Amino acid sequence: MVKIEQSLCIGCAKCVKDCVSGVLHIDQGKAAVRESCMQCGHCVAVCPVKAVSIPEYDMADVAEYDKDSFTYTPECFLNAVKFRRSIRSYKDRRVEREQLLGLIEAGRYTATAVNTQSVSYVIVQEKLEEFKAYAWKGWLSYADTLPSEQADLKAAIYKFYEAYQKDPRQDRLFFNAPVLLVIATENSWDGGLAAQNIEMMAVAEGLGVLYNGFMVRAVRQNPEAAEWLGLSGKNVCCCLLIGYPDVVYQRTAPRKTADVTWK
């Protein structure tokens, strides 16, 4: 439940106007709460006198806005988007826990439908080699479900597995990335949005990321993989390979002209 500190509230009604759920109102010149809400935190963020809190959350985690600390320009952001690449070649270098926690922070602050905040993250680095057997088993199982018109893809997956068996460095599922991040949530949109913010944070940290759709299929196809991850019964929606890129790109890649309709 949202809490209004009456001794601090100045009755400006900014929280009332910005309330998504419509549960705030002005009562005798002060903001008041009618009923429970989805705890989106807009009221906390908009209050000019810090009279609003959500006791269920860690309020010490709330940061104050400082205009001077924002160097977020349209040009800078668009450059970051244009220069990001899907990385399939990684250095044999460990990613520190502090950096990985920074990526999770970017995911944690991503918007979720109705503010459910129900996204789960599993970071696999220490036991990555142990998990690979479960993932490869799931990918081969997925290959076996492919229809006859996708026989070429099935053959390619088995060919990748044979190459991996001969030389573990020839890994077309993990690409020798040091970290696997698995995202699970009931609403796949929430997971996708979090993954996008995580990738951009990773780029800022000098890391590279690959969205691995085949890994998602591998985990979904093998219940043992989901159980190993502690995600049995959950919707695994995104798998990201993360590490330091072992490749340097000199320029942006060309793209098709945007398909836009103006009305």
UniProtKB/TrEMBL annotation:
Keywords for this protein: Iron, Iron-sulfur, Metal-binding, Oxidoreductase
Keyword Iron: yes
Database matches in InterPro entries: 4Fe4S_Fe-S-bd (IPR017896), 4Fe4S_Fe_S_CS (IPR017900), Nitroreductase (IPR029479), Nitroreductase-like (IPR000415)
A Gene Ontology molecular function term of the record: metal ion binding
TM annotation in the entry: none
Pfam families with a match to the protein in the record: Fer4_10 (PF13237), Nitroreductase (PF00881)
Regions annotated as coiled coil: none
Location of the 4Fe-4S ferredoxin-type domain: 1-28, 29-57
Similarity remark: Belongs to the nitroreductase family.
PANTHER family: NAD(P)H NITROREDUCTASE YDGI-RELATED, NADH DEHYDROGENASE_NAD(P)H NITROREDUCTASE XCC3605-RELATED
Record-given protein name: Nitroreductase
Organism listed in the record: Clostridium symbiosum (strain WAL-14163)
Origin organism lineage: Bacteria, Bacillati, Bacillota, Clostridia, Lachnospirales
